[in-house]
Design goal:
9 strands; alpha+beta; Aminopeptidase; about 190 residues; single chain
């Protein structure tokens, strides 16, 4: 991991789970607003996060409240990455709701502030989410990436995910079309 530099000093990110985040009133109060800033900025820059236009603050707050609530009952995991108490990334997975898919979960979002790219924040978040999935008894952890997001695809491969499918030209952003690439991490094969 390449630690991030903050004010000329190298720093490792602090990765908090939903319980740790909620137990810090200052961070919890700013979480949705800070997450909105990161997500909206990334979407404005063309990031593949499921939105064509930046989400509203209310939409992000509602989304994160739902994930945090679901995490309380063990059907999700939420992680937040901080450098010097400044949110620089977040990610979460949700257990599949269908009864036949309950042993499995899908990583819905991993987002890292553009200023912190390349410093291992995404790797740290994804590794924490993988650990959370193992601890929750998840059998297969899935995620998808837009076909042009090569850095994310490299990261997922390096963490043990394998590609299991691809929908050519499935993602439409204006006139542009991108593949949707599916990945899985099968804990059953790892013993």
């Amino acid at each position: 991991m390449n630690p991030a530099r903050t004010n000329g000093v190298t720093a490792e990110p602090t990765i908090l789970d939903a319980v740790e985040l909620a137990s810090d009133p200052e961070l919890a109060a700013r979480f949705a607003e800070s997450a909105h800033r990161i997500l909206a900025d990334l979407v404005r820059g063309g990031a593949a996060l499921g939105w064509v236009d930046p989400p509203s603050p209310a939409e992000v707050a509602e989304l994160l409240a739902g994930v945090a609530s679901t995490a309380q009952v063990g059907d999700a995991a939420l992680r937040a990455a901080y450098l010097d108490r400044r949110l620089v990334g977040l990610g979460y997975w949700l257990r599949y709701a269908r009864p036949t898919h309950r042993p499995h979960a899908d990583v819905e979002k991993i987002a890292v502030d553009a200023a912190a790219h390349g410093h291992g924040i995404g790797r740290a978040l994804t590794a924490a989410l993988i650990s959370d999935a193992r601890e929750a008894g998840i059998e297969v952890l899935t995620l998808d990436a837009r076909g042009d997001n090569v850095p994310a695809q490299r990261l997922y491969h390096s963490l043990g995910f394998t590609e299991y499918g691809r929908l050519p030209d499935f993602v439409a952003v204006g006139e542009s079309r991108f593949d949707k690439v599916f990945y899985m991490l099968d804990f059953r094969l790892q013993g």
